Amino acid sequence: MKADVQYNDFTGTAAADISDYLGSKYGDHLESFAKYFKIDENRFKIIGISIYGTDNFYISLLCVDKQKSKNDKEYIVKMSVEIENEKDILDILFKRLHIVLHSKFDKKYSEMEYDEEVRRENFH
To answer: How far apart (Å, rounded) are the C-alpha atoms in residues 79 and 92?
Structure first.
């Protein structure tokens, strides 16, 4: 499953560290999100998390529905979770979150590393 928006002008990668709050309470794994959001882990196995939007963003848990899965095919659901009253939800879930985007047509720079980190104000 990949991130996808209407035009995909930019594509890239993301990496995150679980927050100390969740990590110390539930552990450093995806199941911590299931525990935090009180998901029925007997029925659902969390396999990912999706964050979509900017100002009014929402969070979904990507899960295998064990009840609907068959021996030859896992049944995957995207389960939205309520976050209306949690304005600091990203801080609750993650200690660090890093998103890197490139042009959707880029086949060169998305695979490269930078040579030096500089500050804009040093050049303007």
So the answer is: 19
